[in-house]
Amino acid sequence: MPYLVWDPANPDATEATWEYDGKTYPKVMSVQGNIDVLKTIANWSEEPFDEAYYATHEYVAGEIDDISLRGVHADYLPVLKELKKEINAYLAWAQPKLDKGIPESQITLFSTNNLHIFQTYYGGLRKTADGSEWIYGDVELVTQFIEGGYELKTWLEDQGAVFNDGVQLTLIGALWHRENVNQGCDIDGDGKMEATGNWGSYFLPTKTTLLETSPTASQNKLLTRTTVKSLVTENGKVVGVTAERYDGTKLTAKANGGVVITTGGYAANVEMVVENNTYWDSEYVTKAIKTTNRSSLVGSGIVMGEEVGAATTGMGFPQMMPISWIDNGNLAFGGGQYAVYINPTTGKRFVNEYAERDVLSLGEFANGITYNGVKGVFMEITNAKTAIGYPYPYDTYVSPVEVKELSTDDVESRVYFFTSPEELGEIMKEYGMSADPKTVYETIRAYDASIMAGEQPSDGVGKSSASTTVGTVKEDGSYALEGELLRVRLMAPSTHHTMGGLVVDLDRHVLNANGEVIEGLYAAGEVTGGFHGGNRLGGNAIIEIFVSGRTAADTIAESMGK
């Protein structure tokens, strides 16, 4: 949100007023490592991207120090040029402060639409395992959903959604601090939440609008426990769907303006993931892998679209969630800026914990162990006082700085607390981890020393954003590790999001293999492809589903003269 970040028109501002609510908020501060990323982008080559270079050199996903030297695809060059102007203006202001010894954590955060667009580009720039195909997000689709996303917050708040408007956080694989923390909804304005979390902020307010407060509420209906079976076509136009209710009742729903497919991806259809996969090593992505998804996300909308001639794109690039519980594959939530990821065999860090989700998952598969058939099991270690959710729990954030006390109870196969190498060793032994726990402590101590010195970790494994140490820095500036309560979470990758899906245009018409509109058919959300390239940035899905859904609805309304 512009009022929370650096403003070139008022660069020294420490606070700003948000016009929407008339309240004044402190500016959000940068995080150690962010400015190094900005400097890399400021020096990004403007030559055409050199795919041929990687025919003879190793390509490592997420290594922007190398990728930035290889150029940029022509359609993103205008974005890069504008972004460089923005970054250079910021660096001209920030660098003198750094030169005076002011830590990055006391310098206002830089963030712009162009940065978000460009990070979505390079965060999704990937190639297939055999090197035969490169993929990245369509610049027009990416720009549309990112720019359109800035209307969402006030649109939702007008319907009763509640956000913590004074913070801008991050989450796993997001690459930047740009998340607006949702807290729930207060639809009737009585100061009490009707619901919390994602359901409260995103879906209950819009559901209430649809069924209760919109001008057409009496005509609107949601059918639950109902499975769509096929699309209905007449004279080449999609005009409705056939479906079956939970009790076997069959029905047909006809559309006045159009059918919008919003059935999500296919990450819960592991067989479909494996069959389409061209990105992951087949040793790791097998039919035994777990998923974060609910059971209904099996790709049925994609199949129905294909049955009426829809084209697909990006189907070979499923996304793994690198922080999933090893017992059932569910999403553990959290971010990497405050954590160290530890190889259970060596006791060392193995990846930039703030990197993209596929980079983290690739590192985990290569460095983790196999436990009970789950591949890529690793240890995430944090200070026990660090809030680790999205946020978790949802009512944790009372204010931008005040955090409630979190539980320190162990959870079998998931979370354990310890205060010494000996206690950690007992936990590791239970899961067949062979690293010396004293080495783990040495790794943490060296990592923390680098972070406290404002430097990159001395182990050679980079860190693009580090918000806190694992050990405790006390009020007098002293540091403590042994005896401090630490938390270890046991996690591994599981299927999470599928970047591939139906091909759509800027109006969200579904297209056939010739790029022609399939009349009457639209799609929005994860069922579509072309937005995220080979890897989705954390947080981008929520933005895209709303922007795409609203875009499809607006297109249909316009076609009906409404």
Please state the CA-atom Rg, rounded to the nearest Å: 24 Å
- Overall CATH class of the domain at 319-494: Alpha Beta
The best one-word shape is: globular
Strand content: 15-25%
- Characterize the main sheet: 6 strands, antiparallel
Secondary structure: helix percent: 25-40%
Structural classification: alpha+beta
CATH superfamily of the domain at 319-494: Succinate dehydrogenase/fumarate reductase flavoprotein, catalytic domain
Name the quaternary structure.
single chain
Please give the number of β-strands: 23
CATH architecture of the domain at 319-494: Alpha-Beta Complex
Reported by name, the CATH topology of the domain at 319-494 is: Flavocytochrome C3, Chain A, domain 1
Low-confidence stretches: 390-403
Compact description:
Among the domains are: 2-110, no CATH class; 319-494, Alpha-Beta Complex (Flavocytochrome C3, Chain A, domain 1), CATH 3.90.700.10. The protein has 13 helices and 23 strands. The protein has helices spanning 34-42, 64-67, 77-99, 113-124, 139-149, 152-158, 197-213, 270-276, 300-307, 357-367, 421-430, 437-452, 540-559, and strands at residues 15-17, 24-26, 126-127, 134-135, 161-169, 179-185, 195-196, 226-234, 237-245, 250-254, 259-261, 312-313, 318-325, 340-342, 369-371, 374-383, 415-418, 472-473, 479-480, 486-498, 501-502, 509-511, 517-523.
